Amino acid sequence: MAVPSAALEQVLAQIMEPDSFEDYCPNGLQVEGRPQVRRLVSAVTASAATICRAAALRADALLVHHGLFWRGDDQRLTGFRFRRVRLLIEHGIGLHSYHLPLDAHPELGNNACLARVMGWRLDGRAGRYGLLSITEFTRSVSARSLATRLRQRLGRPPLVVGASERPIRRLIWCTGAAQDEIEEAIALGADAFVSGEISERTTHMAREAGIVYFAAGHHATERYGVKALGEAVAAQLGIWHGFVDDDNPA
Fold it and tell me: What confidence tier does 1 reach under pLDDT thresholds 50, 70, 90?
């Protein structure tokens, strides 16, 4: 079954509500593709490898969390950005990208999906757009046991810094590059904070605040939301969906 590309755009916009967010990238359609969509592929990032794999799957549209255009970038289509756009155009693949809207969605978002993967109950949300997710464990857990669970569920060991001996009852998380949200997590009484990346300053902040920080991988923590969104949209429209995982250790 094929649907107009405009129908795909409309359903994505209805679910993601991009106009509710101030983002530093365009959310929605970034590169126009075929007028009809039969096959949708989702992936974390619109890398050249991802686009080539989507083309091999005969995708008409590619749905990603990390698109091609970001505030402050050089606006010229040169280098890797030109090569990615050329691949999309050559294969007739439309590119749809959702950043903060996908992080924040209460059911299909990266934070919500990470909670399901990890088996964490979502007890509350805080911060701008509700990007900080909170759980209260019924019994305290150790940093070692939480690190082991992250490794088992996400397929890579997290980097653990800070007060690694502290018992963890209140856990706060935000996927991707949310290491600077550690200050708000501290203010919210977190025993531990999980995100994807870590900066040099993060270690000092965690140590001085006496909390545990887990850098579990940007890609590893954000594999699940875009796949869930792709599956939901494809089911609603009655089109084929596939997920491409261009693995990334960062």
Answer: confident
